[in-house]
Amino acid sequence: MKFVEEFRNKEIAGGLIRRIEESLRERRVSLMEVCGTHTMAIQRFGLRSLLPKSLKLLSGPGCPVCVTPNELVDLAITYAMKEAVILATFGDMAKVPGSSTSLLKAKAAGGQVQIVYSTMDAVKLAEDNPDKQVVFFGIGFETTAPTIAAAILQAEQIGLRNFFVVSAAKTIPLAMEALLQGEVRIDGFICPGHVSVIIGSNAYRRIVEAYHAPCVITGFEPLDILQAIEMLVVQIGDGRAEVENQYSRVVHEDGNAAARAVMEQVFEARDANWRGIGVIPGTGLGIRPEYARFDAQAQISVETEKTAENKLCICGLVLKGAREPTDCRLFAKRCTPENPVGACMVSGEGACAAYYKYH
Ligand code: SF4
After folding, report:
1. Rounded to the nearest 5°, which phi and psi values hold at 164?
2. What is the rounded distance in angstroms from the CA atom of residue 91 to the CA atom of residue 186?
3. pLDDT tens digits for range 46-103
4. Helix/strand number for the chain, H first, E second
5. Which of 23, 155, 230, 307 has its CA 20 to 30 A from that of 247?
6. Which of 65, 115, 68 is nearest to 87 (CA)?
7. Which numbered atom of ligand 1 lies nearest the CA of 340?
8. How confident is the model at residue 7 (pLDDT cuts 50, 70, 90)?
């Protein structure tokens, strides 16, 4: 198939849904779509409503904006309020409420916040403002982390002394393992397409071997997702747990070695705090000591406010599949994309935003 319409063909979709029903029989199955872009596509194309009731799709933690904890949002806000600093961030992150305010509100209160569209924009910002310290709020998974690393290498190459990064980048496979050890039953994973382009399908081998949880990598069109679901329920019915790659037009076994090499040159694995999930060992990407002069936390010390969470927001439970956005009593009432109470309502990949837009 070459054209997008072909990936939205109703007859083929109907056939896949029938095969899913046949494979499920009376079995109850819970599958997690790890990636926020999958959550958005599932909502956009109404796939939940087409699937049998005994099949549950759980939204996972694959929205980088959503999983960034309040303490790092607060840190970015504190930098933005420092006179000598310009805080550079991707747009969605600016709207995420921290403990008491957001970057967007901090900007309105006089903080220096600059929205950038790429990590290299942040490097350019530093070049254009030599009398300022430019701090880039570096969020993302394996898809974005190589571009953050590349920005640090570029800053080094051109001798920039005023470019810094708060590294909030995270990696996915160990987070999936942590979820399998949690209280939510997950029978299989719809693995993230974009992340898999970088890490490759081999990165999920440990999950199938150690946890017997089937993994299928897939794309973002309705037929991609339905076929991945069918592949998962067939595996479950057969009692198999394997890594299968529905997205072979883009994802390869070994991923993108060049992108991983850049990432590994600049970052090392550290423990990371995930909103609602807690600290997951080895899932953070900290800046290596060799590049410490670009590490904002090592170079520009600030005191942040005491972290506070909104007690009514259940974003943390949504991110681990324990609740649906509509279980939140603030959903679509006090919490909307225009006035988000929690991070999951902000991002274009957030589960609450997806449910709000297409519910
Ligand atoms: S609807 Fe808003 S308040 Fe409720 S969980 Fe989602 S982000 Fe949090």
Report:
1. -135, 160
2. 32
3. 999 999 999 999 999 999 999 999 999 999 999 999 999 999 999 999 999 999 999 9
4. 17, 11
5. 23
6. 115
7. 2
8. confident
Ligand 1 pocket: which of 67, 312, 331 to mutate (most atoms within 8 A of CB): 331
CA distance 34 to 305: 32
Q: Which tokens in the block code for residue 161?
A: 């002394």
Contact 220, 37 (CB under 8 A): yes
Q: What is the mean pLDDT of residues 193-203?
A: 97
And the tokens for 218?
Answer: 């897939």
Ligand 1 in reach of 276 Cβ (< 6 A): no
Q: Quote the tokens at residue 199.
A: 């890490």
Q: Is 351 left (phi over 0), alpha (psi -120 to 50) or beta?
A: alpha
**Secondary structure letter of residue 256 according to DSSP:** -
Reported as a pLDDT band with limits 50, 70 and 90, residue 2 is low
Q: Which two tokens stand for residue 84?
A: 């000598």
Report the alpha-carbon distance of residue 93 to residue 70 in Å, rounded: 11
Distance of CA 176 to the CA centre of its chain: 12
Q: Domains in the chain and their CATH numbers? A: 1-298 (3.40.50.11740), 315-358 (no CATH)
Q: Which helix (H) or strand (E) holds 229?
A: helix 222-238
Task: Tell me how far apart the alpha carbons of residues 174 and 319 are, in angstroms, rounded to a whole number.
Answer: 15
Q: Is the pLDDT of residue 5 over 90?
A: no
